[in-house]
Structures are given as C-alpha cells and as structure tokens.
Specification:
The complex is a heterodimer.
Chain A (H helix, E strand, L loop, with lengths): L12 H5 L7 E7 L3 E19 H8 L7 E19 L3 H14 L11 E5 L2 H4 L1 H8 L2 E4 L2 H15 L4 E4 L7 E3 L9 E6 L3 E6 L5 E7 L3 H11 L5 H10 L7 E2 H5 L13 E3 L13 H27 L4 E4 L7 H15 L5 E4 L5 H14 L6 E4 L25 E9 L2 E2 L21 H13 L1 H11 L6 H21 L9 H14 L7 H24 L2 H16 L6 H8 L5 H7 L7 E2 L1 H9 L6 E5 L5 H16 L3 E6 L10 H14 L1 H8 L3 E5 L12 E2 H9 L4 E5 L1 H6 L9 E8 L2 H6 L6 E7 L5 H8 L1
Parallel strand pairs in A: 1-4, 4-5, 8-13, 13-14, 18-25, 19-20, 19-23, 20-21, 23-24
Antiparallel strand pairs in A: 1-2, 2-3, 3-16, 6-7, 6-14, 8-9, 9-10, 11-12, 15-16, 17-22, 24-25
Helix pairs in contact in A: 3-5, 6-12, 7-10, 8-10, 10-11, 13-15, 14-15, 15-16, 17-22, 17-23, 18-20, 18-22, 23-24
Chain B lengths: L1 H14 L1 H6 L2 H4 L5 E6 L3 E9 L4 H6 L2 H12 L2 E2 L3 E3 L5 E6 L2 E11 L3 H10 L8 E5 L2 H4 L1 H8 L2 E4 L2 H15 L5 E5 L8 E4 L8 E6 L3 E6 L5 E7 L3 H12 L4 H10 L7 E2 H5 L13 E3 L7 H6 L2 H27 L3 E5 L7 H14 L5 E5 L5 H10 L9 H5 L9 H18 L6 H22 L4 H32 L8 H16 L1 H30 L1
Parallel strand pairs in B: 1-7, 7-8, 11-16, 16-17
Antiparallel strand pairs in B: 1-2, 2-6, 3-4, 4-6, 5-6, 9-10, 9-17, 11-12, 12-13, 14-15
Helix pairs in contact in B: 1-18, 6-8, 9-16, 10-14, 11-14, 14-15, 19-22, 20-21, 20-22
Classes of the chains: A alpha/beta, B alpha+beta.
Subunit structure (chain A): Homodimer. Interacts with PKM.
Protein name (chain A): 4'-phosphopantetheine phosphatase
GO molecular function, one term (chain A): ATP binding
C-alpha cells in the first residue's frame, strides 16, 4: 500500500457520487422518465490485517518473531456493487464523467474492455444512441419488468429490513419486516409513469396481472398543469403543505356528516376535485397538489387491493418513482389498502425501491459473465443513502431526493442461512431493544456512540501510527460517523431497524471505508499472547478443584474474560491503566447470586447423563476471554464427551477474535493442552466462522457451512457469550435446544435497565423449548 | 281522450269498496304534488309526477297553489338560470297509485338548493304538504334548511334502495327500451346502440357515476351491497376540467372533450417503449401514463384545452371501468350497469366503458347503460314515498305492459286500459291461464303489426338473441319468484301500506311460474315486447343524439 493511494481521501464531490469508478466494470443502467439509476461493480482494494502463523512467518521472512502470530497489512479485494440514482436530465454529464474518469485512469478493467452495457427502463430506448456514442459500447436492452422483479427478489432475499410498513404518526413510523426466507408469492405494484401490477410466484414465474395509466406521470403531468411546481419533488412538497378539503368534496360536504348506513366516514373523499368546479380561481397550489396526490394514491391503493383479492395475494409491495419514500404518498397508499382490505392486508414498501430495475439489469449482465451468481450481499451502510426524511437534507444542501442517492452492497461470500436451532425463525428478532421504538434507549445509545467516538479515533490512529495521513482519515471517520448519528437522530428509520447492533456495524463499516480495517489487531495480538502465557497454570489450577468448584470456576473464568471488552467504555478506562489483569477482573465480578443466576440449574443439567452431543460457542473478545475463559470451558465439555464448535467472526470488528486468528491460536492452545490437541486432531473440536463481522449476532444469517455442521453434529447446546451476542442481541431468543447466555453487563445504563448495576452478571440457562403446537401434538 | 278513459276507469275502481280494501295504498297516498328528489353532491335530481287524468271537477277543485306548481313545471323546460327539465326523458301515460300522468325529470345544481327552497317558499308549497321526500346526501344536509325556510319535513329514503327501485321502475315502464348496450364500441362507424332486455337482471353490478362513484352488487331486490366506489368520478372530471381549461360546466367540458385528442397529452406504451410491449401483450397505442406527456414544461405550455378535457375524460372513464371490472370479477357478476349523470351527453365515456369492459375481460363482461342516467334515485324515492313497493315484484305484469307506447297508442289504447285495470284491480285473481293467454295474443298481434310496419329483415339475428335472453330470463324468473316467496314469509322488505296487494301479486307470479304453459306465454310476451322495443330504437337514438 502506497501513500499515494490515500490521496483519494480528499474527495471531489463527484467522486463521492461515482465511487471507485476507476475499478468499475459491468455497467448497467435503468433510465426512467425522471430518474436514472446507474449500476456497476467495483473491486475495492483495502488494507486489512493478515495474521500469519509464526512458522509461516519465519519461513517467509527468514527472521524470528516473539509473537504468537504475526500481523501483516495486506490489501484485500472486496467486490462491491454501486448504485447511483440521479435525475435523468443529468444523464449526459454523468456519462461524460464516467467516460473521462474511466479513460483518465486507464480503466484497468473498465468500460474500454467491455462490449456492452445492460440497459432497462423506458429511457433505455431513448438514450440508447447517446450511451453508445459517449461510451463506445453496445447497449443491450433488458426487459423492464423482468429487471424489476429480479431486483425485487434480490433485495428481499439479501437485505434485512428491506421491506417495511409505513405508519404515519406511529411509533415507529416505519415497521421493518426483518429477514424473509420465504418471499413468494407477492404482488409488486410498480408506480412509474404508469402503474404495473405483477404477481410474482417464484424467481422465474411472474405475470403482469393488471395496471393503470393513472400513475406517477399523471401526478406529475397534472401537477405541472395545475400548480407552479417545477419538478416532481416540488410537487410533493407542495402536497405536504396542502389541505385537500378545499378542493375535494367530502362525504360530509354531501351529507352534512357521515354516511352512517354504509359506513362511510364524513372525512372520506366522495369526489376528488369536485369543489374546484365551483370556484376554480380560489385554489392554491398546495391544496390542489394535495388533492392530486391523495386521489392518485388512493386510486392505486384500491386497484392494488382489488387485484390482490382477485389473485389471493397477501403481500403487496409498492415501488417506483412515485413512492420514492415520500411519507405522504406511502401514507395514502397504506390508508387505501387498509381501508379496502378492512385491515387484512398491509401495504409494504421497500427501502431501495428506486433500484429494483438497475439491480435486475446488473444481475442480468452478471449472470451472463459469471458462473456462480449465488453470492450473498450485504448493505454497505457507510456508502449508502438512507431513506429520505423531510427534515433531512442531502448532498449540496438540497433535498436528497432531488439530487443523488446511493446504494452500495458488499459481497459477503458464502450464502447465509438461519440458525437451525432457533425455535421459530419467523418469530425470531435478533435485537433486544428496537431503538426506533424505544425513544429513551435511542437517545442514550446515540449519545453513547457519539461520546465514544474519540476513543475509537485514537485507537484507529494508534493502529496505524506509522502512516502519515492517519489523522486526517481518523478525523474524517469521526465527522462521517457523527453525521450519520445526527441523521439517525432526525430519522431513526433511515437505514432499517435502528439497534445497538446496527450502530456498531455502521461504525465498523466507516472505519473500514477509511482503511482502518482492523484497528485492534495489535491490541488483540498483545492480549492473546499475554493470555496464552497464563493458560497452562490456569488449567492446572482448575484441575486441582473438585467437580463442583471447577464448574463455578469455569463459569467465572468466562465472566472474568468477558470483562476484557474494548467495546465497553467503562472497561477501557480500567484496561488503559495497564494494571488490569485476569485476576483483577475476577475480583470486580458481582458475587453470587448474580443478576441472572441459573448456575445451579446449569450444574444440575451438566452433571447428569446423557451429556450434550455437541455445543456451539459463539465467542466474544480476544485474549483472556477466549483463551482463559472459553478454552477451559471447551476442554471441560470435551472431557464429558461433548463435541465443541468454536464459532467466531469472519471479519474483524473491535477486539473480537476472528476466524483467521483463532485458527492459529487454537494450535497454540493445543500445544499447551493435550485434551485440546486430541480433540482438534479427532475433529471433536472445530473452529468455524459465523459469516458475520459484527460484535453482535444475527442468527437469521449465519454461515452456510456452520449451519450444516451444526446439523450434522446434532448440536444440542448453544452458548452465547458477551454483551453483544447475549444482551444486545438474542436476549429474548428462544431455542429448540439448551442454551447458555453468559455476559458481564459493562454498561451502567443497560445494567440499570435490566434492574442491576455495573459489572453485574448474566448467567442464564434456558432448557430446550418446543413450539406450543408440536408439544401438544406429542402429548396427544 | 285515451287518458280520459283511463281516468274514468281507475276512478270507478276506486269507488269499489272490495278493491280498496285490498289496496289501501291509494287511500293513504300523500296529497299532490308528488315529487321525488335526489340531492347529490353536484346535482339535485327532481322527478315530478304530473297527473293528466284530472277531471273537470277536480281541476275546478284543485287549489291554486298546486295548479301554479304544475303549470310552472310543465310549462317550462328551464327554471331560473340553472334548472333544466330533460324533456326527452319524460315518461307519459304512467299509472302510479291509480293516477295517470307524466313523469318529468328535472335537475339543477345542488349549489342552488337555497334558490330552490326560496322558490318552494314563494310558491307556497307548505300549504299543500307538510313533507317532501328526498334521498341522496343532501336529504341529510339540507333537512334543517327545508324545515326552517319552508316548514317542510324531509322524508329521507335510503339512497341505494331508491337507486335500485328507480332502475327497476323505469326499466319496466319506459315505453322505449330503457336498457341498452353498445355494439362494436371500438369502431367509430360500426358502433351502435342496441336494446338489452333487463327484466330479469340478477345478479348485476350498478356503477353509479355521480360526483363520486358507488358500485353496488345486486343479487335480488333485497340482496344488494355497496361493494366499492371511487372518489374519481363526474365531480373530478368537471373539477379538473374547470381548473385545466377554465370552462364552467359539465356540458362545456364534454363539448371541449369531444373536440380533443388525448394522445397529445397522455404517454402511450409506444411513447415509452418505442412500440408494443409484446411480453405483456400491451399495444403501443395503449395509454401508459395519463397526462404523462405533461411532465415536459414545453408541452405543458402548448397543451390545448380540448385535448386536456379529452384526456381528463378518458382518464376518469378508464379508471372507473377498471375498478368496475375488478369488482365484477371479485363479485363474480357479468353484467355491469353504468348509470349516473356523468354519462349524460357523454357517448365518449359510454363507448369507452363498453370497449374497456369487453376488451379487458375478453368478452366476459357486458357494459349496460340506461336512458334515464341520473334520475333513478329520484324516481325510486318517489316510489318509496308513494309506498309502491319494489317495482320488481310487480314486474311480470308491468313488463307486459308497454301500454302507453307513444306510437302504439292507436293499436292499443283500449287494451291499455284493460291492462291497467288488470294490473291494479284483478291481478290477485289472475292465476287463470286465459288471462295470460289474452295478454300474450295481444302482444303477438302488436308485434306483427310492428314487424310489418318496419319491414326489416335485419331483426332476424336479434330475434334469436332475444330468444336466448328469454330462456335465460325464465330460469332467472323462477329463482326470483321463489325468492320472493321466501322473502314474503319474512315480510320485512315490504313497506307497510301496500303490502296486501303486493303479497298477492307475488303469490300470483309464483303460481304462474309453476305453470309451464304460462311460462311459455311469458316468454313469448318478452319476445314480442323486445321486438317492439327494437323498432323504437332507431327513433330514440335520434332523440338521444339531438
């Protein structure tokens, strides 16, 4: 990595729009009447820490090292999808920009090497020649509907919280729908210039079952004729300020009140625009715009409901530029669906509805050039725009929706599947507190993360202190993350469910975006080394204890280890003194009975046969936690004949041990403990990655191989360790097998919320559960 | 003269005690004048029954106020600056509550309601009656005004019930065919209005397009439900046109629309895709986005009023058609009857609806229209007021009674009288085959003469069609009559007052259905009835166009 590449950290505005353009390939474009969406794929080269085992290090570098493993900075390649939405009128300058950038930088794998660009949308036809002349590539037109559906399926399959229900004045205003593993069948209502209703039954089976010409173009067209609005968004802004009651004839205008006999409320619109006929000159722009928006939204909602009813569909997704996240539009459509279905069906919206076509067109191209397109993609929050909030302004200080909007997705590798041991996947929600709902918690955590930013920055600087631009980058991280926190304060729903998990993940993404891929790598290395040194004596001390004492000591070992959490600011203070060791940590622990104390219950279960067949341990932190806490417990389980899967993060975050680190560490531990060594050789002890890169744990989406192994080994014990995995998430999770949830509460606010105090202990043992219905079946 | 006879007969019957005991309604009828009023969001529709059987004595006795009102309403075609009598819709020689007379159809904007109330006050209306009957939302809204200004109580009747009663009454009693459809609606040249036999209508959908739109599913006289509606209706059309073109009235808006071309305003599938969208079978000419071209400021500037009015009309109409079609599918109903004043002087919309229903349903749905577009609520309201029960119940007889057909009068003035008498006084005894036969013969003869007069062979195909309809009708008729029987047991749908006669009529009709001979006769009657309707068709299309 050269210093030169960091020069990019001072960005031109255009560069922040068309990011990583110099590595771009596989262009696709969806040109709508008003908005164009460009899609491309880029390879992100970024610095990451690589751990190399001592032996390999020695072999490669021909030098000796004292370290348990060595950290090397390396560049990793990440495949990222970029989607940029801009007004179609800018298309020419955008094409010029792309062309100049690609050629200027030589376009390593850029457009010059590509034969064609996939295009869809109504404008694909109109702008075909322009694209060809500007970029010198052939334009392949792709079917619009097919692209929309492919895009919709892709988003629903890949992006958690893609779909939401909108409830104006509700708490939360957006109710996100989480992860849906069973998306078909559904009705997609695409509201572009006109409206198409498509019934989607599978990835390949769909049918346009209806449509109406009264769509976004009607709203815009009529609005342009009737008001002074210069653009679609101005029109919506007008509508938001207007009062339709001076334009529309309401039921009460005709009846003097409600029409009770057939249940029509007085405020219901009986005839849109009917009052305008009486005195057309009195109308103000706002009221007319509002009336127009309501009439078209209501109409589309009604038609969608009727089609859903005819075709027996329960899920209706609305997309297209007419919606564009406008609360008023979503509200009126939601109202209409609710009104006509009598509450049976709820209108669903998509956070990225504008990108369906572009995603579909891109995938079409990708499928043609790649063998395996079945990758999993994750939302790159740091490079994506949130849902527009009326209060929020976007780039250049203008309302976001009228300028540029972006979505970035990172390739995550193997498919992710739900944990097979969850009692009910549909019922499972990872996060304990939904910060979009819980206002107190939201205020606390947003402030907490804002307060903690200096600490994160200094750690980041420390990790790359040898690099000249480290400070500007850290500053940049700080300002970007603070901006994001501010945005979330104003619109908590902008990026899906707002949770402690999402705040942590976003922080990691911003760090990584600014080349701080693993700020804690040296810290982890140091802690791991220190802990390995203590392991031998710790194990022999444990072996001296009787069974019961040993069980307590094992649990307390995990708890003491779990104190070493650089994600918890109170603990950081202690650790920074440098005099806080494993023993000190043990002394800080709450004495029994703990805040949640199922230890006796656990011992009772642990002492009786048959023992668990296989335990999966989702590990936290590094150093003392993993080495002195988890490994001894694993050893104990192994000694009882229980197989153990040590499951750690695939990607670095905070001081959580990663898969690549643990693979090396386990060998060090095996060298110390013969039991561990035997188990490792006989594959009774496995180290596996969880597919995630978060301090929290979303059991809806874990590594494909892990899921298979868990099934194969008949895993019947889940151990969730640490605040991130057992308190912030999974606190309420129910499993079909036994589960241990172990954590030290290292946050005073949270401890108080749980009815305890700082450094209180959670040790929950929950017996296997059964879904109520299956239990009663067994009885009968 | 004929009217005089009728009058004499019915008067004579009224003197018959045994009859009036069976039919107490006429004794209980409210005093003249008889109005039915439907106060909608935009238009108020008034149906006025002008008695034409007034004897010299009665005329002498008739209070001056009543006479003033009668002369005022029948002597004018326009009232004030906005009231209009639709002369072409008037129904002469109607027998209602034992009186003969003419139904007049009058409308004025609801915004002028206070003027109307003033007029009622100035004509001293309250000296004649203490109440006036009304339906529609305005019956509620203006109730207090009527009481305060003219000391009149409003008898309020259910809007949907009035609408359906009005439809059935007028369909049965219009001497011309009331119900029709558009044949070949997609071809400007070939498109024509064709009568439709609507006597056994169930189930059907009513799409009432007034200011807003209500959609009712009707399965029997008493089984009906408002299934849907939309706020994009006639009011929207006028309102938008006023805003877009500066026009003032519905008529102006329609006038503009008839001159316009919406393809300058709308965006078609072809505009977007450069041609047909084959994958989904969408033609290039299909409207993809109504007003879609207006997103361009330049085109906005140069858009022409007529084109804008046309686009508005097309948008509203297509939308109604689309919702109506989906409702028909969800309700599993094939006949869709479009009514309401939006369709007045609006062949563009009717043909479009006819085309859209046919095209998008692959021919499964039929769009039907009624001549008295917006007056059914008011008519039904009058029927309710006069407690005449549900017209359907008397339909088998009333349908066989095109007695007062204007240009058939010379053939049947006397039978008409007999008919009327039969209908009102002897119906309960009319379970003999002879009576039915007589009627049947009579109609066949009428039919023959009509046929000869017209001398047309074109009717042959229609003939077969109508046979088909008739068979269909008989099946339905059976069901309906059975229903009537069971409903009679519960008895709750019949307004008190006239129910004795009505019940016996029902019984009577169910007897008839059980008798196959008479069923055949009925079928023949239907047939000949239709023949006569067809012959009047040409004439009344002229009327419509004028």
């Amino acid at each position: 990595m050269t210093d030169k590449s960091y020069a990019r950290s001072i960005e031109l505005p255009t560069e922040s729009l068309f990011r990583n353009l110099k590595n771009a390939k596989q262009f696709a474009i969806d040109i709508g009447g008003s908005l164009a969406k460009l899609a491309y794929c880029s390879t992100i080269q970024r610095r990451t820490s690589m751990v190399i085992s001592y032996e390999i290090f020695q072999f490669c570098f021909q030098t000796c090292s004292d370290h348990v493993y060595n950290i090397s900075e390396t560049e990793e390649s990440i495949l990222r999808l970029h989607f940029i939405k801009f007004e179609t009128k800018y298309i020419e300058s955008c094409l010029d920009f792309i062309k100049s950038n690609l050629f200027e930088f030589g376009g390593r794998s850029g457009l010059s090497n590509e034969k064609c660009i996939k295009a869809t949308g109504g404008g694909a036809h109109k702008y075909k020649d322009l694209i060809t002349s500007k970029l010198g590539v052939q334009v392949d037109k792709e079917d619009e509907m097919e692209c929309l559906i492919t895009g919709c399926n892709f988003l629903l399959n890949n992006i958690p919280d893609e779909a939401f229900i909108y409830q104006r004045h509700g708490n939360p205003e957006y109710r996100f729908q989480g992860v849906n593993h069973d998306i078909f069948p559904y009705l997609l209502v695409n509201i572009g210039s006109g409206v198409s209703l498509i019934k989607v039954e599978s990835e390949s089976k769909y049918d346009r079952i209806g449509g109406t010409s009264t769509g976004g173009g009607t709203f815009w067209g009529l609005g342009s004729l009737l008001t002074k609005a210069k653009s679609f968004d101005e029109l919506v802004e007008l509508a938001e300020k207007g009062d339709h009651r001076s334009v529309d004839m309401l039921v009460k205008d005709i009846y003097g009140g409600a029409y009770a006999t057939i249940g029509l409320p007085g405020d219901l619109i009986a005839s849109s625009f009917a009052k305008a006929a009486r005195s057309p000159r009195d109308r103000n722009n706002e009221d007319v715009a509002k009336s127009l928006l309501l009439s078209i939204s209501n109409d589309i909602g009604q038609i969608a409901y009727l089609q859903a009813k005819i075709h027996g569909l329960k899920k209706i997704y609305f997309g297209g530029y007419f919606i564009r996240g406008h609360p008023m539009t979503m509200h009126t459509i939601t109202y209409a669906i609710n009104f006509w279905s009598k509450g049976e069906i709820q209108a669903l919206f998509l956070r990225h509805e504008g990108y369906l076509g572009a995603i579909g067109a891109f995938l079409k191209g990708a499928n043609e050039t790649q063998d395996d397109a079945s990758f999993v993609w994750g939302e790159h929050f740091a490079g994506s725009s949130g849902l527009a909030s009326p209060k929020c302004s976007g780039f250049f200080g203008k309302p976001r929706s009228s300028t540029f909007d972006m979505l970035e997705l990172d390739r995550l590798g193997k498919p992710l599947l739900p944990c097979p041991l969850l009692l009910d996947v549909k019922d499972y929600f990872p996060d304990t507190v939904d910060l979009t709902v819980d206002t107190d918690a939201r205020e606390y955590w947003l402030q907490c993360f804002a307060n903690g930013i200096e600490k994160v920055c200094s750690q980041a600087i420390k990790s790359q202190s040898n690099l000249p631009d480290v400070k500007p980058r850290a500053e940049k991280f700080k300002s970007k993350y603070l901006d994001r926190l501010q945005e979330l304060k104003e619109n908590p729903c902008a990026y899906g469910s707002l949770t402690v998990r999402s705040l942590l993940d976003t922080s990691s993404q911003y760090l990584s975006e600014l080349y701080f891929t693993d700020p804690y790598s040296q810290q982890k290395q140091f802690e791991n080394e220190q802990a390995v040194k203590l392991l031998s004596s710790h194990l022999s001390e444990l072996d001296k204890l009787d069974w019961h004492q040993r069980q307590l000591e094992l649990v307390q070992g995990i708890l003491a280890g779990n104190m070493f959490d650089w994600g918890a600011k109170e603990v950081c203070k202690l650790m920074e003194t440098g005099e806080f060791g494993f023993k000190e940590a043990r002394l800080r622990l709450q004495s029994r009975p703990w805040l949640f104390d199922d230890f006796d219950l656990w011992c009772k279960r642990f002492s009786v046969k048959p023992n668990h067949k296989c335990a999966v341990i989702f590990c936290d932190n590094s150093g003392c936690d993993i080495i002195l806490g988890i490994f001894p417990m694993a050893r104990e389980l192994l000694s009882q004949g229980t197989k153990v899967i040590l499951c750690v993060n695939s990607r670095p975050t905070l001081n959580d041990v990663t898969y690549s680190e643990l693979v090396i560490l386990v060998k060090k531990v095996a060298a110390i403990s013969s039991q561990i060594n035997d188990a490792l050789l006989s594959e009774r002890l496995l180290v596996m990655e969880n597919g995630q890169g978060s301090p929290c744990l979303d059991l809806r989406l874990i590594d494909y191989d892990l899921v298979n192994t868990m099934k194969k080994l008949e895993t019947d014990l889940v151990i969730l360790e640490g605040m991130g995995r057992a308190v912030h998430t999974n606190f309420q999770a129910r499993f079909s097998c036994d589960v241990l949830k172990i954590a030290v509460i290292k946050n005073k606010w949270l401890a108080n919320r749980l009815g305890g105090d700082m450094f209180n202990v959670m040790f929950k043992f929950e017996k296997a559960r059964q879904i109520a219905s299956s239990a009663s079946n067994e009885k009968s | 003269m004929a009217a005089g006879n009728v009058h004499a007969l019915s008067r004579g019957n009224e003197g018959n005690r045994s009859r009036s005991s069976m039919s107490p309604e006429e004794d209980d009828l409210p005093p003249m004048p008889w109005f039915g009023m439907d106060i909608g969001g935009t238009l108020t529709k008034l149906v006025y029954f002008e008695p034409t059987d007034i004897s010299d004595i009665e005329e002498a006795e008739e209070v001056e106020t009543l006479k003033t009102i009668r002369k005022y309403l029948t002597g004018n075609v326009a009232y004030g600056s906005t009231g209009i009598r639709d002369v072409h819709l008037e129904m002469v020689d109607q027998s209602i509550g034992g009186r003969q007379g003419t139904l007049h159809f009058i409308r004025f904007p609801t915004s002028n309601m206070m003027t109307f109330i003033e007029m009622a006050k100035s004509k001293n209306f309250s000296s004649l009656a203490s109440a006036i009957c009304a339906t529609g939302g305005g019956a509620y809204k203006f109730e207090a005004d009527f009481k305060r200004e003219v000391n009149l109580d409003l008898h309020k009747y259910d809007e949907l019930e009035c609408l359906l009663k009005g439809i059935h009454y007028i369909d049965r009693h219009n001497i011309r065919s009331e119900c029709y459809y558009w044949k070949n609606p997609q071809h400007l040249q070939l498109c024509e209005k064709v009568p439709f036999d609507f006597r056994n209508p169930y189930p059907y959908l009513v799409v009432n397009i007034g200011s807003g739109v209500s959609i009712l599913a009707v399965r029997s006289p008493t089984d009906y439900r408002r299934v849907s509606g939309t706020s994009l209706g006639g009011g929207t059309f006028v309102g938008l046109c006023c805003l877009l073109t500066g026009c003032q009235t519905f008529e102006e808006a329609i006038e503009l629309a008839s001159e316009g071309n919406s393809t300058n305003i709308d965006k078609s599938v072809g505009d977007i895709y450069g041609g047909d969208y084959d994958k989904f079978n969408l033609k290039g000419s299909t409207v993809a986005s109504s007003f879609g071209q207006m997103i361009s400021p330049e085109k906005c500037q140069t858009a022409n009023k007529c084109d804008l009015a046309r686009a508005t009309l097309i948008t509203i109409t297509n939308n109604i058609g689309s919702i109506a079609r989906m409702c028909a599918v969800t309700e599993k109903i094939e006949r869709v009857v479009f009514v309401g004043n939006f369709l007045r002087v609006n062949t563009i919309s009717m043909k479009l609806l006819a085309y859209a229903m046919d095209y998008w349903s692959g021919g499964a749905l039929k769009a039907l229209f009624l001549e008295h577009e917006g007056y059914f609520g008011a008519t039904g309201c009058l029927m309710e007021y006069l407690r005449l029960g549900h017209p359907h119940i008397i339909s088998p007889d009333s349908s066989s009674r095109p007695s007062s057909n204007l240009h058939q009068v010379k053939h049947q003035s006397t039978p008409t009288a007999t008919e009327t008498q039969t209908f009102t006084s002897q119906n309960c005894h009319q379970n003999s085959e002879g009576q039915g036969q007589l009627n049947s013969e009579h109609y066949q003869s009428v039919n023959k003469s009509e046929h000869i007069k017209k001398g047309s062979n074109n009717d042959h195909e229609d003939n077969q069609n109508h046979n088909k309809y008739n068979n269909h009708n008989n099946e339905n008729g059976e069901v309906d009559n059975n229903q009537s029987n069971s409903e009679k047991d519960s008895g709750d749908h019949i307004q008190n007052g006239g129910h004795n006669v009505i019940q016996e009529r029902e019984q009577d009709s169910s007897h008839k259905v059980q008798n196959s001979d008479i069923t055949d006769n009925l079928s023949q009657k239907n047939h000949s009835m239709l023949k006569s309707r067809i012959t009047t068709n040409a004439k009344y299309i002229d009327h419509f166009i004028s």
